[in-house]
Amino acid sequence: MKQFFLIISMVTGSLSATAQIDSLPLSAHRVTVLDIDLSGMSASGGRIPFWLQANQFGVIPANSPAGSFSVGLSERFRLSNKHPQRFISYAVQAVGNAAQSSAVLLPQAYISLDLSHFSLWVGRRKERIGLGDSTLSSGFYSWSGNALPLTKIQIGTNDFTPLGFTGNVVSVHAFFAHGWFANSDSIQQSYLHQKALYVRIGRPNWRIRLTGGILHNAQWGGHSAYLPDLVARNGQLPNSFNDYLYVVTTQQPDELESTSHTAFDGINRFGNHLGSIDVGAEIKLGQWQTMGYYQHPFEDKSGVAFANFPDGLYGFRMQRQPTARSGFQLQHLLFEYMNTMDQSGPMSSTGNHYDGRDDYFNNYQYMNGWVQKGRVIGNPFLTRRQDLRPELQNAKPNLSIYNKWAIANNRVQVVYVGASGSFSSGVRLQTQLSYSHNYGTFRTPFDEPVSQFSGVCWVIWPLKWLGGSELKTAVAVDQGQLLNNSVGGRISIRKVWRSVK
Fold first, then answer.
1. Dist. CA 260–CA 266, nearest whole Å
2. Which of 46, 207, 377, 483 has the fewest CB atoms within 10 Å, i.e. the most exposed one?
3. Which InterPro entries match (predicted)?
4. Which is nearest to 71 in space by CA: 52, 94, 88, 50?
């Protein structure tokens, strides 16, 4: 049984991937971006390899062969000449997939009001939340961009906002959000609570800058026909406004149990809480911008107290701008290591102040786990049962209750390398390589550890067609004992139109 005693309340933080439109001039009165992509994918064994699917916001089909057509439109309008940093903007992206099960998806559909350093937006937005490398990471711990985005309403800062009374040495980035999970077989009408706070020390021109903060997520409320009376009142989980306040503050209810909640909720708090405590440092070394970071996971008070250390995602990035030199130039290099083996120990009660067996991304009430529309919301190396080889999906048949839980592999050790660069001709290369040891979970361990290699190599070719477009080609492979072996590829044509007025 997972107990939750978070010792935080309103502290939280996040770094979100910005949309393409945000990189265009703020001085423009109107900015429009139209992005069209036509892709085809195929693989041996009938399953698209890991690195062609992972961290793609849930839009890539799992099964091969598949075709995909994506159309995205975003616009930004300046509200006032007197206040150039006040905007209203929107973005919509539709993806149509033709595969064994065809679908039309909306990974992005939002409207945003931006007033200088602050913004309010409603809808679905592509985000990777955490402190790290948002372009090449193996996946931020709790919000990686691996799943279809949730619908949210969010208020917060646009980016790091300097505090004038510190001489702009200290800046903060924070937000507060409410969201809605998609209905699943096991839970319907559940909500997301999310908040974040990050603090950075250092001006933009400083050689060294330090950053730290915390991201807090909670799935709460909802109804399930599968939950016993021990953990839910007639299948209903606490969902009133007063219950919401307990979720936000991470406090226990005043009563151990009542007509609306069970003793399970009274002990463990309302909802499934998880997140990460992040720290990082940026250092300028000549032409290279370097960054080291650590995302520390928590699911209860033991994680907040670092009883599960050294679990977490560790990263080191080197990045530079291309120069006029001919030939190939490496511009982006990332090393990551993720360990989730400790989990505060193998026992649910450790005999001290903290519980063990954190069982990352699993929860007794939310049996689908930390999942949205069939994809893990956090780092994709914590694996759903359905994605494993068949012989690993029922690791301990005598423990049938735990074999119903979504995440069947959350004790992992992963080594990862990502790199990208370009030739003077404009051709770009990118690769992602990972090797992992996988142990199952503490409750349902694999009979023996299994290893897995996954890799992908992209070549992006600039084309003169349609006034400038690009051809993207990729070859990917899965080889090991965790996933079905697969070799596959993807080819796509992409065209982006930009208008600045």
1. 11
2. 207
3. Wzi_sf
4. 94
